Amino acid sequence: MRGHDPIGCMATSVVGLAFLGIGTVVVGLPLMAFLGGCNPNYSKGSRTGIVNKFSEKGLIYKSHEGEMLLGGMKNTDQGMVANVWEFSVSDPEIIKQIEELMVENKPVTLQYTQYLIGPIQYSTSYRVVKVSKAETK
User: Fold this and answer.
1) Per the structure, how many domains does the chain have?
2) Which of 3, 86, 119, 137 has its CA at 20 to 30 Å from residue 34's CA atom?
């Protein structure tokens, strides 16, 4: 008859708990960071300019993507280029408003929320939540 080995059982339990703890950290922390990054409250703000491109994109997930000229130029590796901001829109009412205001070719203000890690259906991390005509002086 074999005797009970309390040290061997305790060692097995400690090793098992260590693997469980490591597994939780390796899987849990990246998952929490990813899910937290998908939260649209990473950043909020507004930008004003002229929408010069607006289209529906996507093979599986359709989304509306646009470009807004913010004015001015910026220096890049390719030289001086226009200062352009790219954004995404999902709300049908906002899509309609942008399309109508784009015809006027006048400045608009787009309020947005920014994702740290954008949802797969958008090409950008900026999702427009409100649109209005820009105040001109």
Assistant:
1) 2
2) 86
